[in-house]
Amino acid sequence: MSLKSRLHLGRKRTSPVEGPVQSDNATNSEAHSDRFGDELDTVIANILELLDVTDDLLSGVSVPGLKEALTIVKSLLDRVQKTRENLEEKDDVCESIQALLKLLRSSIEAICSAEQSTSETEDQDTMKNTLNSQLLQSQIGDFVQALNKVLKLSRKLDHSNFLSAAWHAKTDASVLERMHKKIDEARDQFIVRGELNKARLLSEQLNEAQKTRQDAERHHIENRLRELQRLEEEKREKENKILSGLTPAPASHRSDNTSEKARLEPGTRIIILNDLVTWATQTDIEHRVFVLHGGAGMGKSSIAHQLTRQLAEDYIVASFFFNRGNSDCNDAHRLFPTLAHQLASCNENLRAYIVEAVETYLSKGSSQVLSYQAHDLLESPLKQFLPSPSLIFFAIDGIDECTNSPTYTVPDVLRLLCDLAHQIPTIRILIATRPEGYIMDSLRFDDEDERGCTVQFCDLQQQPNVDADIRFFIDAELKRCAAGRKLPLLLARPDAADTLTRLSDGLFVYASTVTRALTQDRYYAVELFDKLLVSHESLGGTGIYARLDALYNHILDNAFSEIRTDATRVVHTQHVLAWLALVQQNFTVANLQAVGIPEHATSYVIDRLRSVLEVEDEITPTTVLKASHASFPQYLVDATRCHNSTFAVVPSFGHALIACSLLNLLSRDEPVSWAGNKAEQLVRGAATYVQWPPTSDYLSSNEQSNHSENFEEHEGIWPEQPSFDLWAYANRSWIDHITPARLSEPLNEALALFCKTRLRDWIVCVRPWGHPYAEYSAVDVIERVRDWYERQEGRDENILTFINNIVIARRQELANEKKRRFRRYLQSLWNPAPRTSTSKRPYTFRIPHWKKHPRGEAKLKPLPTILEE
């Protein structure tokens, strides 16, 4: 029973109408009230104890505001405790305070339990964020504010003395009643707000948890993507490393080496281009090989280049543009590896098949015959890719410029290409070439051969609208040169464009060359045009190249007419023209200076021949000597076409000039114009390493090995300068220039110097004078030089004897080396036979299983006997 109930029972026994009994009841009531007050004090003491326990619990919880709430409750309890009247109302307030403390204690215990159950760092952070959340702080703040109002109200219970307290007993009862209600309201509001906040916090925690899961999933996905990207990069790097083993040639339509072929004037050759696009994009067609043939200068390469660029936007495209003047682009053995490398870069699905095929191919050797190249690198992976409907287009341009054998290599390549197109229906192959007999015969098959149905021929000279295209091109070039002004040529000769179109006679190279010649010097254009017109009218119909040759003759006459009487400049010009016509590699002005041609002489020739050379900007030491079309070098060396006796290149004389220059270069103590003192010291050290003058003895094997290792150790510092390209060309090609040359006094002196200083190092392959041939091939090459020299008039017998002794000595050395290798081989196979203590059998040689005796038992011989044999 509560204090309040017991108080009511005590009052029930009190009656105001009974006399003596009333007095007794009053006495009993007072005694009961005193007892009730004592019990109330005990309750307050218990509440204070509960308050202290709650305060201790709160010390372990960092919840802002609760400490202040407990302080207010304690102050309220102190005020209530001092009140001696109105015990019933006082009891009500104490019950409210006790209920409030129980609520706070349960809340604090719940918080402590939650904190103790959180072990993970993330859970502790979540708990900390919850306790400091705005919702909880708002709830506690409102609660403290309500208690402060109650505390403010309780100040009315303070009285100065007992009489004042008795006087205001009725008012204090009302205050206590209001305090009781407000405390209950604050408690109820705290409970309601707590439930609401709990729901909101739960919602926020769910959202936070969902966000955390989403962040975790996102991080997982990002990490997975990074891992996949890393694996993809490693895979790509491995694939690139495998593909690099093909050593592709820079001969695609994207290569800078084919830039001179990418000059099809927009608006020209529309009909043939449309026909080729229609042919290449048809899904079901019998003729899968298109042979576009025509003479030099008709624009075959430009058409092939434009078609390749156009199809590359939507189809799988690979191309190879042969170039006789570029050693990387004139070898048929580079064709199939280069096409395979390009295919791997065009399509990701096809790339996997190509890489697998290349890895298998390279495991059997990097240099294989053409049939294995075509089958392993193209046919096999493309057949695996065959279910794909994607069309695959190959463009092979200028195979007539291939320097391989026209008897075997080139026909084999063409037949393999036709086989490939016959086997795989989605392949289209364009072959642009001159109509050379060995090429056209290789592309024509017997009626019974199914490959014959695959090939379609097209003569470019028979195409319509060729003159209209040339006229369009000439107009465009003249307008480009005029740049808004009227050309003197068009003012003086209004029909010049029509006349030039007629003179071109279907040759784009003629139209290109003549417009460049006329626009190079606009003020002499009228004079040159009139000369061309007169000479062409005298030619009549003498052949398709007669007019082109006449144009070249006029260009040579106009270019060098002023130096004909200057012997020195004529010699320099002849030397430059010989390098232009006979050297199958492009060198710069600085390169030619290294072989004795002054820089100003080469620059002068390039400047005067701008109309037939590839020159774009100002001439510098790095400007390359390069013809804009192959017909000009061919014209220079053809005596039936070039009628300029002063500047025509006689092959035997031109090769002699070049061979003399290369031999003098190789005879120097070091390569010229090296970049860096370290490289200069290295090469100079190599020169002093060998004892000069040479004798009939060679370096020992150990000396050769040490000398080779000396250069291998420093191979990485060799500078990639133009002069090094020239040095490498001299090492590789001096043989190719000396054997077709006619012996002259300068060439004889250069050969003598080379023999006395460097021939021994060259044939033994001592760097940097090493040859690019195999050991025995190098001896065969020197024998060719000896045989050539033996046929020359004015030869020096001492030089001939010296070369012969070099060949004999080297062959003997190679024979001895072969014996030493065989001896080491036998020693590696030798196996001592097992012997017992009484056995006296000598060591024996165990014959390999493939050399066993026909009867099945290996016939063993003693090792000393075998070595003697």
UniProtKB/TrEMBL annotation:
Residues 228-241 have a biased composition (Basic and acidic residues). The lineage of its organism: Eukaryota, Fungi, Dikarya, Basidiomycota, Agaricomycotina. Pfam families: NPHP3_N. Residues 66-93 form a coiled coil. The keyword Aminoacyl-tRNA synthetase does not apply. Residues 1-14 have a biased composition (Basic residues). Residues 1-34, 228-261 are annotated as: Disordered. InterPro entries: MLKL-like_MCAfunc, NACHT_NTPase, NPHP3-like_N, P-loop_NTPase. Residues 288-435 form the NACHT domain. Keywords: Coiled coil, Repeat. This is NACHT domain-containing protein.
